[in-house]
Structures are given as C-alpha cells and as structure tokens.
Specification:
Helix content: over 70%
Number of domains: 1
Number of strands: 0
Low-confidence stretches: 183-187
Mean pLDDT: 75
Number of helices: 7
Distance between the termini: 72 Å
Structural class: mainly alpha
Order of helices and strands: HHHHHHH
Strand content: under 5%
Largest sheet: none
Radius of gyration: 28 Å
Length: 187
Amino acid sequence: MLGLQATLQTNLETSYLQALQRELTIWFTQAMERASGVYKRRVRSHTLLIGLILAIVLNADTLNMANRLAEEPLLQERLLQTFEQSSLIYPPENLTPSGNQLDVFALLAEVSMLPVGWSAENLIGQFGQALEPRTDVLKVLRVLLGWSLTAIATSMGSSFWFDLLNQVVNVRNTGKKPPGIQGDKSV
C-alpha cells in the first residue's frame, strides 16, 4: 500500500511539474509576443519621427523630387545610371561590411543632383518665387505633405528600398534570365 501511495505521489508530482512547465511556457511565449508588438510599435513611431526630422532638416520633399524627375528627363536618366551602378557595386548577396560599402560619400556625391536641401535654387523650384502668406498656403501644405511622404518612405527601411531598387533595375534591363536558358549550368 505504501509503495502504491509513493508511486501515485510521484506520478502526481511529475504531472504537476509537466503542467507547470507547460503553463510557464505558454505564459512566457505570450509575454514575449506582447513585448515584441510593443517594441515594433515604438520602433515604428521613432523611425517615423526621425524620418520627419531628417526630411525637414534636409528639405527632402518627395513631391518636389518626383515633379523635378518628371519634368527633367536628363536628371531622371542620370539618376537611373547611378542606381544601376550602385546595384552593381552593392549586390544584395554581399551585405557584409567591405571597402565598397564604406564608400557611401562617393555614392551620395553622385546622387546630389536631386533637388534636396535648402539652397536658393531648390527653394525657388519648390515654392516658386517669394512666399506670400495669404496665397501660398497650398504650396506650404504641399511641402508638408512631401516631407511627410519622405518620412514614411524613410521609416520603411533600407531592405525594402534596396529590394525595390533591384526590381526596378531588373525590369529596366529586361529582367533576370529564366532558369533553363543557354548558359545556365544548373539544369
């Protein structure tokens, strides 16, 4: 009888410990999922705020850049050439730090043709002539919208934009070769 009681007691303790472990695992998983959600929301709001600050400081108005690129085909062609060159220099497979990737300033110098910054030329292109408070409310609202769009675009992250850039370059170069075409040794 004592042996049976000891066996039952051991089985109860084992099942209790297993149930406790299962409950702790469930609790921990749920707590980590909640913490992850809170972290993602905070990071998203912080990156959006940082993007907005950068857009204002750099006067990076997405709508102004889009208009200038639409109106000036030469600027558009130079920018596409720069993107194509950068996709060759920085392929997605080689994302470890190297000498090529540390040469950011050279790439920025090539992209400096974009209408970004507080230069007089850019401000005239952005606002027209001198601003008049009564009549130019729409221009100011347009610039605020452009800064907001830049902030949203910035908050999407570099991997999103790098993948998008590679897709644009591939479409422009008639895409990647489908598998099974001549020269493909994997078939």
